[in-house]
Amino acid sequence: MVSRSYSNLLDLTSGESPTFGRGGKRLSRVATVAGVLSELDDDNTNSVGSDAPSSISQERVIIVGNQLPLRAHQRSEGDGGWNFSWDEDSLLLQLKDGLGEDVEVIYVGSLKEEIDPSEQDDVAQTLLETFKCVPAFIPPELFSKFYHGFCKQHLWPLFHYMLPLSPELGGRFDRSLWQAYVSVNKIFADKVMEVISPDDDFVWVHDYHLMVLPTFLRKRFNRLKLGFFLHSPFPSSEIYRTLPVRDELLRALLNSDLIGFHTFDYARHFLSCCSRMLGVSYQSKRGYIGLEYYGRTVSIKILPVGIHMDQLKSVMDLPDTESKVAELRDQFRGQTVLLGVDDMDIFKGISLKLLAFEQLLIQHPDKRGKVVLVQIANPARGRGKDVQEVQSETHTTVSRINQTFKRPGYDPVVLIDSPLQFYERIAYYIIAECCLVTAVRDGMNLIPYEYVVCRQGNEKLDDTLGLNSSAPKKSMLVVSEFIGCSPSLSGAIRVNPWNIDAVAEAMDSALIVAEAEKQLRHEKHYRYVSTHDVAYWAHSFLQDLERACQDHVRTRCWGIGFGLGFRVIALDPSFRKLSVEHIVSAYKRTKKRAILLDCDGTMMMQSSISTAPNAEAIAILKSLCRDPKNVVFLASGKDKKTLSEWFSSCEKLGIAAEHGYFLRLDHEADWETCVAVPDFYWKQIAEPVMKLYTETTDGSTIETKESALVWNYQYADPDFGSCQAKELLDHLESVLANEPVTVKSGQHIIEVKPQGINKGLVAERLLVTMREKGMLPDFVLCIGDDRSDEDMFEVIRSAMAGPSLSPVAEVFACTVGQKPSKAKYYLEDTAGIRRMLEGLAAASEQQLSRIGSNE
User: How far apart are CA 184 and CA 155, in angstroms?
Assistant: First the structure.
């Protein structure tokens, strides 16, 4: 099954990649034979978009997961072949209930079973036609490196807070495994591209196996409606930052429109990583958390997944379940059952649970012979030495406890490590008085939810157990505070699984809680679990994904960057790159020119250590100032003394210092203030407050200007600095509420300055100066690079409709870099600005030379 793909997996190509557009008809869902998908049109990726966002109910959702929600069985009779059926236990299948019956769902994923290459086309055809599933066939060796290698040796341990401190603990980083991970994600991307209609479809990617998939998809379709949900924990920044490919994974996830997490802790860790490693900050707006990433808002969703209520209830209704409950009732008659259900892996804390139960029997001899711990150990999903060690330790501990406390007809611990049918597990839930989950780290863990629902029971099961169906039900939970479901189970007894004594005490507390209390806790849990099921979770996620994508059609997108550093910049449709030839041509044919330049990030080379302008910049300014057709102003946040020294040789240059508070029309003129400020007594109020925060925030400094005070926390800890900045902002706004000043936050700064001071004043003064000279500008160039320069752009834009400019004036408001701005044009960097200004200066020199020769 062939699709157009990138020529280099790790480069993603450097130029324009071929794109799929969308024509009048819907794209065929999949290519089921070898060949290349035909193009529907030749439009560039940037044109992808429809007239208006559509409702979820009218859309198709492509769900992408590591494995398809299918079971496969190879036929033994005849010519072999395969039989497929839905895997009712798969979350990807269960979430369909939340999407509505009129939503078409396509699944993309791999199969657990290895399919012979000669059968893959037939299997793909069958799965598409029967199940609407698109299989990604991954070569066994590549899959082993991808899944058992990078996913299970690197990502999974790290996301569960295990550092590879030695080869035995996860192993050292292996770049070949990373390349396999990228390659498999690329295969998945190709499969999605075969079936997608990018205008209409929503794509929902699941879990850590496919974290770079958003980059491949966003590279091909800039306006793709793309959500990602992480089902594992996301570690703290101190853990995550040890990953050698940390930036690549973060940037890949930020190519999604919506990123989902089970708990706020996981989301908080992700946001902290984005802030500390990428410098990307987040904001909360009307209850929604969003990251501003190159003009796009990447939304964050926090909602734990739920269980499939109907599936559980249907299994509870089975005769087999009733029979198993009766069997277990007789087996454990006269005993209280504590139940643990866990995978056999190092993070589920089975051994800690066993040690706590052993401690319970030691400290409470009266529980011996009466309390049984049934531990169901599901087969491990991974493999390796650590799994074998867990199995060995578990069996050893169980044997020791049983040998110590065993009595005739009583085994303290019943270990079940063989696979159970689902109905058998349900039966154990039903007869257990308390469920114990002591995982040391787990993304979500739905065992407590299943337990609560099963304890609600039904009439047949109540009859089997001899219970009154109309009586309130009861259940008890002891859960680790390190699992994702813990925050939502407020009636559970939360424990630190590493504290063996505390877990033993929690077990005892769960057994002696009053019946009425057990009923209240059960009722509270059941109400939450039954209303927040998997359908609710899926519907809520897709609803937020639609909201996150509603502005796609109104933005103009560019793809920039190489490899996995690729990202999409969303900008205003009228925003475009400034053509040097175009502006030089306009410059030559105009006679009255206004030129307004920001100094700090525009005239200074960003790669330079020195903050002073170099000789080339000074020469350009002198050339522009010598031209009698020009009036040139320079605006800066720096103080007037520094600017006077830097630009002393530019005699005709107008300079504005401290963001427009001080202004000098030329070298001969005196400095004047643009805003009348009677005095600066407010500094005596603000400065002590800033000093307090400087003393308590390592790395922060105070910059004192004549007109302003600036608290800078650029070199402080990003999280602590940001937290302190918010506190300082509130503090200053409170103490200066009645003073004629404004308190503003900027990029790593909090600034206090007199009201009305901004660079817009400089733009206004430039236009006034030209009007006083009898010059009505027919050419305006305004260049800036940061938020403070937006005031200049706003004044220039407003002047275009007024009498300050010639009716035929050519206006060029230009920012540095592609980012959201009130400017109409951009140039990539300060080097681009420098080349453009050199072109203008050269044009002026030519005209001056021509005038001199004529004279």
Answer: 15
The DSSP output letter for 673 is E
Among residues 244, 252, 257, the alpha carbon closest in space to that of 189 is found at: 252
SS3 54: coil
Strands (E), 473-519: 476-480, 493-495
Which two three-digit tokens encode residue 463? 């009859």
Instruction: Residue 176: count other Cβ atoms within 10 Å of its Cβ.
Output: 10
SS (H, E, C) 255-288: CCCEEEECCHHHHHHHHHHHHHHHCCCEEEECCE
Q: Name the nearest CA neighbour of 378 among 336, 414, 354, 345.
A: 345
Domains of the chain: 60-302 (3.40.50.2000), 310-532 (3.40.50.2000), 576-675+757-852 (3.40.50.1000), 681-754 (3.90.1070.10)
- Kindly list the distances between the CA atom of residue 168 and the CA atoms of 165, 172, 385, 701, in Å, as whole numbers in the listed order: 8, 9, 8, 45
Instruction: Name the residue type at position 401.
Output: I
* Dist CA 169 CA 171 (whole Å): 6
In whole angstroms, how far apart are CA 344 and each of 1, 516, 697?
A: 37, 35, 46
**What are the angstrom distances between the C-alpha of 32 and each of 28, 129, 220, 338, 513?**
10, 10, 21, 51, 60
**d(C-alpha 214, C-alpha 219), whole Å:** 8
Q: At what angle do helices 718-735 and 683-696 cross, to 10 degrees?
A: 160
Tell me the two tokens of residue 13: 């190509």
Pair type for strands 296-302 and 336-343: unpaired
The string of DSSP codes covering 111-149 is -SSPPPGGGHHHHHHHHHHHH-EEE----HHHHIIIIII
Closest alpha carbon to 201 in 106, 131, 128, 133? 106
pLDDT along the chain (855 residues), means of 10: 36 35 36 33 35 50 97 77 92 92 94 91 94 96 94 92 75 90 97 92 97 95 94 95 95 96 95 90 85 90 95 95 96 95 93 96 95 93 79 95 94 94 96 96 94 95 91 95 93 96 96 95 96 96 94 75 80 78 91 86 58 83 90 87 88 86 85 80 93 94 90 89 92 90 86 86 85 86 85 87 84 84 84 90 84 63
**Torsions phi, psi for 654 (to 5 deg):** -80, 135
Given a contact cutoff of 8 angstroms between Cβ atoms, the answer to whether 338 and 433 are in contact is: yes
CA end-to-end span of the chain: 76
Angstrom distance (rounded) from CA 795 to CA 506: 67
On the CB side of 467, CA atoms within 13 Å amount to 21
Residue 482 CA to residue 195 CA, distance in Å, equals 39
**How long, in residues, is the chain?**
855
Work out the angle between the directed axes of helices 422-431 and 319-331 (0-180°, nearest 10).
50
Q: DSSP character for 164?
A: -
Rounded to 5, what percent of the chain is helix, strand, coil?
40, 20, 40
